[in-house]
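Quiz preparation item.
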């Protein structure tokens, strides 16, 4: 196997190697942002990289969300890169969204998942996907007051 030279700056995240260029650009932009980004903010950010049509961004986002590499926050209509490499095989994803600084904390909580599982069992409801969005103030913003 030939030695391949990679001149991209190395990155901590290990992402799927089969992303298209656009998907990779969108995911990198999300991963480097401190707060969730809307499709139009992504378009603004990536204009210089050759993404000019909203459809290019939407298509890339669709694929990333489908694969669990990024998540859509319904209440903000914005996107974040998945922060938890284990969440892709879990049914529940929870986000704590800070109203003050906009920071989003992704977590999966076994207790919440169990409670929901019990409820679903009692109701006979078949859960396919659960996304929780918790709005409030992060620890840092609470302290800053
Ligand atoms: Zn995730
Ligand atoms: Zn905050």
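Solution:
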């Amino acid at each position: 196997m030939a030695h391949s030279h990679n001149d991209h700056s190395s990155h901590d995240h290990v992402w799927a190697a089969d992303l298209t260029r656009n998907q990779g650009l969108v995911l990198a932009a999300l991963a480097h942002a401190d707060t969730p980004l809307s499709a139009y903010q992504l378009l603004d950010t990536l204009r210089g990289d050759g993404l000019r049509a909203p459809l290019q961004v939407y298509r890339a986002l669709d694929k990333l969300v489908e694969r669990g590499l990024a998540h859509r926050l319904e209440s903000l209509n914005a996107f974040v890169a998945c922060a938890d490499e284990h969440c892709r095989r879990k049914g529940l994803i929870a986000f704590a969204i800070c109203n003050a600084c906009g920071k989003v904390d992704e977590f999966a909580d076994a207790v919440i998942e169990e409670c929901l599982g019990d409820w679903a069992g009692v109701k006979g409801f078949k859960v396919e996907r659960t996304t929780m969005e918790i709005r409030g103030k992060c620890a840092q913003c609470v302290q800053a007051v």
